[in-house]
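INTERNAL AUDIT FORM
Audit reference: QA-55
Scope: verify that the stored structure record matches its stored sequence.
Auditor: D.O.
Record contents follow.
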Amino acid sequence: MSKPPKRELTAERLRELLSYDPDSGLFTRLKQTAPHKGLAGSIAGCLNDHGYVLISVESHQYRAHRLAWLYMTGSWPEHEVDHINGQRDDNRWCNLRDVPRTINGQNKRRAQRNSRTGLLGACWVTRDQTFVARIKVDGRYRSRGAFDSAEQAHQAYGDAKRRLHAGCTI
């Protein structure tokens, strides 16, 4: 005997189980979900290793920003839900937008952890002994020039980002 398919969570069911405050971005449980878990009136969710708020609803884990979208619009997001200010745990309604992956990826605010400069868009080129600013547009990297300091390269990157990335919010 096969397992029944997962029933997709609806906005109506979500609103029966949780209350969402669009000004704070917090979900509150309306009903106790299981003995000793999810007490009515308690704040729902916990942070995962990537900084997103996860909420368990009927034995399934959901990211809070996607639940907020469902709660407010009545349907699941068409694309990815982007946190406009870059803070993954800030699920206020004014901080969320439904955008394609390319636009979401353009909303980066910090350099990757393995960055040698620690500045977004600025990288050190050992061969030339200089800092280079480069930006990815339409799947290809474009150089913004060579600079004496990482800060100058980062500034050039930021200027280009505001012009070339539709998803940029800085």
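Auditor finding: record pair retrieved intact. The two ends are 54 Å apart (CA to CA).
Action required: none
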